[in-house]
Amino acid sequence: MSQAISPEEIERDLTFARAAAAAAGERAMSLRAMERWEGKTLADVGDQACDGYLQGLILGRYPEDGILSEETADSPERLAKERAWIVDPLDGTREYSQLRADWAVHVALTVGGECALAAVALPAQGKVIWGVTVEGQERHGVDGGGKLSYGDSDAPEKPRVAVSRSHTPPWMETFIDAIGGEATPAGSVGNKVCMLLSEEADVYVHKIGLKEWDTCAPETVARALGWHVCKLRGDEHRYNLADPHNHELVVCRPAFKDRVLEVLATCGALEDER
Asked: What CA–CA distance (Å, rounded) separates 203 from 137?
């Protein structure tokens, strides 16, 4: 990728993304610790508080950039922007409200419709995984400690497939059996992708319902660590589009990509509407 963004801008924007994701996550943790709300009310309070916080940070620091967020009404003005921030203030609201640790905060910057840099905060796990995918400026890391797993790492004989805790479609079982894997249930798209990057899973496939704020930051950090990211038929995502529905996500080691896509084409995933 060869976006028009200088090394100085990358350093500035990456520092901002990491700090913003971490601070929003700390805010969500503080709200949860107050024990004033529970269930859906807690999820709504956390979502709105983190969204307002991130919106304020981005608008204050980058007033000329576009913003796309799950919790704020969309504006067509962002479509004319070369730079757009795509954020999910609280990815995995169900898990957040259930006092679990598998939820995330996504902060990503796109330039010209392509991933440039991002941070995925895992507040209840005490870490932020971040990455840059701009050509010639690639880098990655984790704040808060923890080992990272790279796309060229050895795959286990029995791949662990990260799956949803709440809605696993029938074709998924066929897919897992066909690749000789085992299911590893968890919440949050960002958390599940970060499971691959933390040696806790090996493959992640999602078919329906995803939007740009679900996939952009996780895709960016995964690519920065050398993992393959695509849709179910192998095509790539584009970002900052008029319709933010991109639905599909596949993350796996590049060496395993052909096998994953081959099985997806035969296990019913492409026909099933779930």
From this structure: 26
Per-residue model confidence as pLDDT tens digits over 114-169: 999 999 999 999 999 999 999 999 999 999 989 999 999 988 899 999 999 888 88
The CATH number that domain 7-143 falls under is: 3.30.540.10
Strand partners, 251: 204, 229
Q: Using one digit for the tens of pLDDT, what is the confidence trace for 156-212?
A: 899 999 999 888 889 999 999 999 999 999 999 999 999 999 999 999 999 988 999
Rounded (10°) CA dihedral 14, 247, 262, 257: 0
Where are the domains positioned within the chain? Answer: 7-143, 160-266
Token pair of 117, please?
A: 């840099």
Distances (CA, A) of 246 to 7, 29, 64, 240, 241: 29, 29, 25, 11, 9
Q: How confident is the model over 48-67, as pLDDT tens digits?
A: 999 999 999 999 999 999 99
Architecture of domain 160-266: 3-Layer(aba) Sandwich (3.40)
C-alpha angle 188-193-195 in degrees, rounded to nearest 5: 95
